[in-house]
Amino acid sequence: MAVSASDIRSALSLPSSSTPVQSATTAPRKYQGQVTKKPEGISRELYALIGPSAPSLVAHLAKPRLKQKPNFGSGGKVKWEWRPFRNAGRTDSLQLGHWVKTTDDPDAEYSFAKYNVQSQSYTYSQEEYTRFLEDKDWTKDETDILFNVVREYDTRWYVVHDRYEPPPDSPTRSLEDLKDRYYSVCRKLIRNRPWAGDEASKAQLLNSYQFDKDRERMRKDYIASLEDRTPEEIAEEEALFIELKRLEQNERKFKKERDELLRTLLGIDSGLPDIVAEEDGLSALSAEGFKKRKKNANEIEIPSTPSNIISLGPPPPKRAQSAKSAALDAQNCIIRVEPPASSATKITHAPVHLRSFKLPAPKAALLPKVTQALTELGINHTRLVMPTRENCARLESLIEATTALIDTKKVVDRVEQDIRVLRVRLGRASEGAEEDGKEGTPMEVDGGAEAGADADADADADAEGEVDGRAQSILSTRSGRGRKQSRRSMSVSSIGTSASARVGKRQKRG
Amino acid sequence: MVNYGGDEVSALVLDIGTSSLRAGYAGDDIPKAVIPSFYGYHTVDGDVQMGENTLENFESTPKPPPSDAKPYVGRDGPLIWRENMELGNPVRDALIVDFNPIPTLISHALVDVMRVNPSEHPVLVTEPAWNTAANRERMAEIMFEEFHVPAFYIANTGVLNAFAAGKGSALVIDVGYAMASITPVVDGFVLRKGLVSSALPKLVKAHARHILSNPTPMRRGIELLPHQLIASKLPVEPGAPPKFTLREDRISGTTNSWRGWCENREVEEWMQSVAGVLDQGWNDQAAASRPARQYEFPTGYNTYFGPERYQVGEQFFFHSPQLVAQNPNLPKNIPTLLSESLRACDPDLRQVLMGNVVLTGGGSLFSGFADRLEAELSRNFPHVKIHAPGNPIERRYGGWLGGSILASLGTFHQLWISREEWQEHGKPIVGQRCK
Question: Residues of A at the B interface (Cβ-Cβ below 8 Å)?
Answer without folding.
Answer: 87, 89-90, 92-99, 110-113, 115-116, 152-153, 156, 158-159, 161-163, 175, 220, 223-224, 227
